[in-house]
């Protein structure tokens, strides 16, 4: 296989959701750029990021999407077909120093469940773990919430980078495992996983979702 942008086996797609200010954009930047953007501007419309990492010896492109508003995003971006939005793996983020962001998780979770298929991996991330002195949500209660709702769970810090890589790697491993054991059907348009992209110049095969429109300003 040639080197360059097409040198990977799958594209895994993630949607990052949670209350405003919990650190979604910072997590996205920490994962894709390996640095903390302290003065991240407010997300307007949609934010995208991509990084290729290896899982089980295969190069996988991770495509992250942070919509400002899930429902509005879904309604307004016609270049992002409903089937594709409906298929994304979800990273559900709260801020361990703000209990209100934790209290809103049930509502975010039902959004995530509505937007994804039943085999979708949903990862709960308690962000800002570097602010231990200001902690407002215990690890134990969040862990219990995760268990009750069958979510993967980790506390992380977009600021120090602590556990950020692990959160994505664990999600990717779980998705890969679902592919291996057949519980995720790659041929289903709503699987959230895409095989390697077409070589430049080739037209889109049937049943493939359209590529996303970068920088939708809806
Ligand atoms: P979003 O609205 O969820 O996308 O949140 P942002 O990523 O824009 O972050 C909101 C604020 O939290 C910003 O001021 C960030 O600098 C800060 N922030 C984000 N992640 C962390 C973290 O892990 N630790 C600390 N101390 N601050 C963070
Ligand atoms: Mg943001």
Automatic annotation (TrEMBL):
Region (Disordered): 191-218
GO molecular function: GTP binding; GTPase activity
Pfam families documented for this protein: Ras
Gene3D superfamilies attached to this UniProt entry: P-loop containing nucleotide triphosphate hydrolases
PANTHER family: DRAB11-RELATED
Family assignment from sequence similarity: Belongs to the small GTPase superfamily. Rab family.
Name the record gives this protein: Ras-related protein Rab-14
Species in which this protein is naturally found: Daphnia galeata
Lineage of the species this protein comes from: Eukaryota, Metazoa, Ecdysozoa, Arthropoda, Crustacea
């Amino acid at each position: 296989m040639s080197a360059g942008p097409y040198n990977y086996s799958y594209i895994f797609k993630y949607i990052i959701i949670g209350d405003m200010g919990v650190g979604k954009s910072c997590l996205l930047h920490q994962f894709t750029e390996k640095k903390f953007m302290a003065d991240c501007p407010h997300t307007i419309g949609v934010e995208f990021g991509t990084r290729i990492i290896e899982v089980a010896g295969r190069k996988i492109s991770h495509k992250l999407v942070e919509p400002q508003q899930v429902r509005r995003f879904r309604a307004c971006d016609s270049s992002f077909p409903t089937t594709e939005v409906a298929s994304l793996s979800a990273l559900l983020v709260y801020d361990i120093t703000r209990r209100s962001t934790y209290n809103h998780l049930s509502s975010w979770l039902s959004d995530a469940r509505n937007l994804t298929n039943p085999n979708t991996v949903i990862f709960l991330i308690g962000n800002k773990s570097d602010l231990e002195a200001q902690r407002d949500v215990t690890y134990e209660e969040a862990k219990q919430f995760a268990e009750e709702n069958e979510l993967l769970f980790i506390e992380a810090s977009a600021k120090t980078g602590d556990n950020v890589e692990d959160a994505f790697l664990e999600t990717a491993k779980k998705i890969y495992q679902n592919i291996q054991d057949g519980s995720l059907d790659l041929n289903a348009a709503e699987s959230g996983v895409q095989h390697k992209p077409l070589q430049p110049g080739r037209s889109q095969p049937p049943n493939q979702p359209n590529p996303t429109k970068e920088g939708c300003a809806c």
